[in-house]
Design a protein that fits this description.
heterotrimer, A mainly alpha, B mainly alpha, C mainly alpha, A: mainly alpha, 3 helices, about 75% helix, about 0% strand, B: mainly alpha, 8 helices
Chain lengths: ~100, ~170, ~600
């Protein structure tokens, strides 16, 4: 099977664009669900950058890093969604700023 | 032709991601997120990483997003929630983060171009090679990931209990 | 001789059992474990001793394990058996067992029965490590171990604040000596790079000529440790107060074993002292001064245990005196006989004290000789041995010391005369103690219900106090430089005078204290009054040290109440806390605010990466 030769800076630029979009989401949205989605976007962008690097050298390491990111994302989502449920129960709100009273 | 596929997929990914972060309805946003993830899976495929592409679809678009959907349904985020989002998402709020993030993006692009990294090899790195590397030099990382997932499992179980930390309610 | 290892391990096991069960065991079992473990050690020690004597070896080393290994420094836990440690081991386990047995009865009604035996067993273990240790580190470990047990046992009745005070005093005062000793050990290590005692001693003999100043310095530092532990002038003030502990403790620790550790130390490092006549002269002086001071102090005490405590100090003074004048074997011999008769005296006085419901004032006893015959006879035998009446064990050892001192190169006759005079005083206060305690009119009615476990040890110790000196002390001859006890000519004028001194003392004492001389008038005369009070307070050492050390220290502490040194550190804390408060302002608890910060940070990092 043949795959095209792609300029690596284009892939990385895409990854960067996706990353900053995720970041905008984190900064703007107050709803925790959206916040988490934005985080997923950012992590996914990182994964894309790793895959691109792996593709540049034709080595499997990039994909392995992506898989580790995947494991991290799965773990993070599991815990974070549990926290979301607790937040909803405790504060009856999904506003991330209501958790601000936990500052110390 | 295949190169054009990359740019199309990239455009779709960018567009759907923009939609993810701007939607008021969480369920809609999640669907766009799936679209974004699928188009990135296409890009993975084009980058010669079919295994990663499969994982992207199965685990990201499949498992993780479905998990999100379950939570969204459990919390019953309906019209009331969308109204609240309208209150929270005033247009003025976008300006500050957009400037900050724009600067960051420009910087990143500058750094990327500065390094002149060249192109991809155009070769496929199949699941076999990935597996060999994963259970060879990366064995320790696999163990660590396994431990992380176990910890997450226990953590999620603990956090998911109905009345966390309130024994009296639990007993009654 | 592999049983040697079991000798210290038996009491250690006993201590561990008693400590770990925290007093949940039945009292009978506690007694069996507590006394039995030491008894077992005594049996092992006996077997080992027989084997050792039969083997004819000069010394035997039993390696247990290497403690640690750092660079070239590898102190081993090794047991070293020679004539000297054999005698010490025998005294510790033998007399120790008898005292433990006695204590099973004496302590029966006391709170903390199990705790008591745990400490006692631990003490026996530490003491055995002290005398069996083959290097200075193990010796020091045992040395501090017995100090700790002494502290714990003096303060055994911890509900009384004075007992805690006495325990602390003993601990702190001995610590002064221990510091000196530790410095000495460091110096030895620096000079020879080894902590092995025999190696260091051999090195010292090779490296230094006689009269070497380094040898003198180290010998004096070691002497400091010995002085602290053995309650000699100037660190003697803790021993009388140590009598706050239960009487068996006084018998075991503060009469028979621990306080003689200093004597053991000097005997063990005798090569060093042989190199330094000056240090030996200091030893003689320390011994003699202690001997005198404490003998006179014992003459005016009211508390029977304090009399015995001062008498212990004075007898250990004899031992130091003997070490200094070169009567090495006689010193160890006296150590042994003293362990017998002083343990006997303490245990007998303990019987009296117990029967009188913890009455220790002699002037409230009296007339007990008919009512407590066993206590009386054992006390009498112990007293005669203490006074060194011919044919008792104390006579043989003291006689050997005095006769050797006459030949001491630096003023032998003078020292002999002084020591003989002190023997006279010893006989005098012993007679006084016996007369006041057991004769005269009865003032308190005794309730003696001691069992066989208390009476047995008294009988055995009484037998040892009489006969313990008949056979001499052959094992130490191969270790100590004077080659064992030398035969004395008992017909010379010096020998006769030496023999006569205690007899004279007893006669004078009988005359003086049985009421034929008007004692009241003497005590109330100005000189008598002042002297009596001066002696009663132990020659004012406590008050002197209070003025000299305690008062300035307390003053310094009061002046330094705001703690000048801490000022810098507290200032640092204040500055840090202020800075924290500033930084804490960024901790808003708003997640998105943190995200913004991270994004800005990221932008800055990229800026740096792009520009640089």
């Amino acid at each position: 099977m043949t795959v095209p030769v792609i300029p690596i800076e284009h892939v990385l630029a895409l990854a960067a664009a996706l990353f900053v979009m995720g970041l905008v989401g984190v900064l703007v949205r107050r709803n925790v669900i959206f916040l988490l989605m934005s985080l997923e976007i950012m992590m996914n962008a990182c994964g894309l950058a790793f895959i691109a690097a792996g593709a540049k050298w034709g080595q499997p390491d990039g994909q392995i890093m992506f898989m580790l990111i995947l494991a991290l994302a799965a773990a993070e989502v599991a815990v974070a969604l549990g926290l979301v449920l607790q937040l909803e129960r405790r504060f009856d709100s999904l506003d991330i700023d209501t958790a601000g009273e936990m500052s110390g | 032709m295949a190169l054009a596929l990359f740019y199309i997929a990239a455009a779709v990914a960018l567009a759907s991601t923009v939609l993810v972060i701007t939607r008021r309805n969480a369920a809609h946003a999640l669907i766009y997120l799936v679209v974004s993830l699928l188009s990135i899976a296409v890009i993975f495929f084009l980058l010669g990483a079919p295994f990663a592409a499969a994982l992207e679809i199965v685990i990201y678009a499949g498992a993780i997003v479905v998990l999100f959907l379950f939570v969204v349904m459990m919390l019953n985020l309906g019209r009331r929630s969308a109204e609240r989002e309208r209150l929270w998402l005033r247009p003025g709020m976008w300006i500050g983060p957009a400037i900050l993030v724009g600067v960051l993006l420009l910087e990143m692009l500058y750094v990327i171009v500065l390094d002149a990294p060249g192109t991809t090899r155009g070769a496929v790195v199949g699941p076999k090679e990935v597996g060999t590397a994963l259970f060879g030099p990366y064995l320790l990382a696999v163990e660590l990931a396994a431990m992380l997932l176990l910890a997450a499992l226990i953590g999620a179980y603990h956090l998911g209990r109905r009345y966390l930390g309130d024994r009296r309610e639990e007993l009654s | 001789m592999d049983l040697l290892m079991l000798v210290p391990l038996a009491p250690l096991a006993g201590a561990l059992i008693l400590l770990l069960t925290e007093g949940r065991l039945d009292k009978r079992i506690v007694g069996v474990v507590g006394a039995g473990s030491v008894g077992l050690a005594a049996v092992f020690a006996f077997v080992v001793g027989l084997e050792f004597q039969r083997s004819g070896l000069a010394s035997h080393t039993y390696a247990m394990w290497t403690w640690m290994e750092v660079g070239g420094f590898a102190p081993a836990i090794r047991l070293y058996l020679d004539g000297l440690s054999l005698v010490m081991m025998g005294v510790i386990t033998g007399v120790g067992f008898l005292i433990h047995l006695y204590a099973t009865g004496y302590m029966w009604d006391e709170e903390g029965y199990s705790r008591f035996f745990a400490y006692m067993n631990l003490f026996v273990f530490a003491m055995l490590m002290l005398v069996l240790g083959d290097n200075l580190l193990v010796l020091f470990l045992g040395w501090e171990g017995v100090g700790l047990c002494s502290y714990l046992l003096i303060g055994f009745f911890h509900t009384e604040p004075e007992n805690g005070y006495a325990a602390r005093k003993a601990f702190v005062v001995t610590r002064v000596g221990d510091t000196a000793m530790l410095l000495g050990l460091f110096l030895l290590f620096r000079e020879f790079g080894t902590i092995d005692i025999s190696a260091a001693m051999a090195g010292a003999q090779e490296a230094w000529p006689e009269g070497s100043s380094t040898a003198t310095l180290i010998a004096l530092l070691l002497l400091g440790g010995a002085v602290g532990k053995s309650a000699q002038v100037p660190l003697q003030t803790w021993l009388p107060d140590a009598m706050a502990g239960p009487t068996p403790v006084s018998a075991l620790i503060h009469a028979a074993t621990m306080v003689t550790a200093g004597v053991y130390l000097i005997a063990r490092t005798h090569d060093l002292f042989l190199l330094s006549p000056e240090a030996r002269f200091v030893v003689v002086c320390v011994g003699l001064v202690t001997l005198f001071i404490s003998a006179f102090t014992a003459l005016v005490q009211r508390d029977i245990k304090r009399v015995l405590a001062y008498s212990t100090m004075s007898q250990i003074g004899y031992m130091f005196f003997a070490l200094g004048v070169g009567a090495w074997s006689a010193a160890i011999f006296h150590l042994m006989t003293h362990a017998f008769f002083k343990a006997l005296l303490f245990l007998a006085s303990g019987s009296v004290i117990l029967a009188l419901h913890h009455e220790q004032d002699m002037f409230r006893m009296g007339g007990l000789w008919r009512k407590m015959p066993l206590a009386f006879w054992s006390m009498l035998i112990g007293s005669l041995a203490l006074a060194a009446l011919p044919l008792t064990s104390g006579f043989y050892s003291k006689d050997a010391i005095l006769l050797t001192s006459f030949d001491y190169a630096w003023g032998g006759p003078f020292f002999w005369a002084a020591a003989a005079a002190a023997a006279f005083v010893t006989a005098l206060y012993t007679t006084r103690m016996m007369l006041i305690t057991f004769f005269g009119e009865s003032k308190t009615e005794p309730h003696d219900h001691s069992g066989i476990n208390m009476k047995g040890p008294l009988v055995v110790l009484a037998a040892l106090a009489v006969g313990g000196g008949w056979f001499g002390l052959s094992p130490v001859g191969s270790v100590l430089p004077d080659g064992g006890l030398s035969a004395q000519d008992h017909t010379s004028a010096v020998a006769l005078a030496t023999m006569a001194a205690p007899i004279l003392g007893i006669l004078v004492g009988l005359l003086f204290f049985s009421g034929r001389v008007d004692r009241e008038r003497l005590a109330n005369s100005r000189v008598g009054d002042v002297l009596g009070r001066f002696w009663f307070g132990g020659w004012g050492f406590d008050r002197l040290y209070d003025r000299l050390f305690v008062a300035p220290f307390v003053w310094l502490a009061r002046v330094n109440k705001p703690d000048a040194v801490d000022f810098v550190y507290r200032g640092t804390v204040v500055v840090m806390r202020r800075l924290h408060q500033v930084v804490a302002l960024t901790q808003t608890g708003r997640l998105r605010w943190y995200a913004v910060n991270m994004a800005v940070g990221l932008a800055v990092v990229f800026l740096l990466a792009g520009v640089l």
